[in-house]
Write a structure and sequence with these properties.
With about 450 residues, the protein is mainly β. It has a domain of about 230 residues. It is built from no helices and 28 strands. Strands 1, 2, 7, 10 and 11 form a five-stranded mixed β-sheet that branches. Strands 3, 4, 19, 20 and 28 form a five-stranded mixed β-sheet that branches. Strands 8, 9, 18, 21 and 22 form a five-stranded mixed β-sheet that branches.
Length: about 450
Amino acid sequence: MPIPLNVCFLWPGTNASIPAGWARETLVAASQWPKGAAAGVDPGATGGAASHTHTTTTHIHTAAHTHTVPNSPVGSGVTSRDTGTTNPPLAHTHDTNPNTVNPTVDLTTEAPSGAGGTNEISFFRVIIIKSDGTPTGVPDLAVALWNDPAGAPTSWNLCDGGGAPARPDMRNRYLRQAVAAGDGGGTGGALTHTGSISSHVHNSPFNHGHPTVTSSQRTQADTVGSIGGALAGTATSTHTHALTIASAGSSITGSSDALSSASQEPPFSTQAFIQNNAGAADWPDRIIGLWMQTLASIPTDWTLCDGTLGTPDLRAVFVKGANVLGDIGVTGGSLTHGHTATGHTHAALAHTHSISEAAGAGENRTAGAVNAPTTAHTHGWAPTGSTSFTSGSTTPVVADFTNTQPLFTGAAFIQWQAPAAAGYSGRGIGRGIGRGIMR
């Protein structure tokens, strides 16, 4: 009894070493992962993506910082009162002025793109090979799936990298079809991934002002005069100035944000990948292969792995290699995954603000009583002190990605169930015609 036409197994070797009676199954696209076809759906449907990107919610940063306000230059104003006096209008300064207060605006909102990444889950490349209807067993060194944690068939071993020559190590890895005309055996991908939010600057330059500051009082006293005259408007001896802090821009440096690691495993079922090490073709009962034709054409005595008749349910899942036989049947994975940002700040470069001033408080004084600056006098303040600052820290919310399946082709996983009436053993670990299927 030969293995039926188009029943597939896995070849971890070179393209040139594919055994006679077997050929590459190209219905699983090159470099794609075989995934169990959904319930009632024929093999061949494709889906997934090579990569993915997360989005983030909008976020802002506070921009708290202050500037020093310098002492005023000497100023006095001009008055025509007290003609002939020897005492000129009072020259004076305003010292030890208060600093500005924090600006009234924050950095603008921004929603930078989140981390992207490859969807390449940890894989082992195999050549999926199909029978031409003549082989009497699975080729020596070929690989099949196995679902019995009690033990592998005689002369079949878990693909764990052991043995001499070494078996392929397919533990914790997913099946991936080799590249077109390429060899089996390559590995890559990862079970988890991380990343970072893209670098962003919000608004740069950050144009902002600071609330008005009231200067200190003048530090010089009025000077007593001696010549009489009319009343004149003068600045009070305790006057101050309202200082308007002009808007200015500060360059904002870009920042990204590291993201926590997350699993990228899609829904999976853990099965053992076992290799035929009998030295010849072998065909144990209850080994599992692949089928890429219609569900209606699955050969006699081969059973779809749908959870019935003692089969594992491998529909709509990827198959992950067991670390040990005891791991068989473990399920997990998800179509979605998310990350948590760690929080970030932005550095703002040093900048200054120009200052404009209003007239100080005034009063009428008797000419000759004092000499004082006029109410309309100015000083011409220099700009504020230069300040750089670091924004407040913010942690953006990273949206879950809803489908991180790698590029896949749907396949039917089928189990050989030797008919008891024909004299096949229950587990099929004896040797005979077809090696391992007869008592």
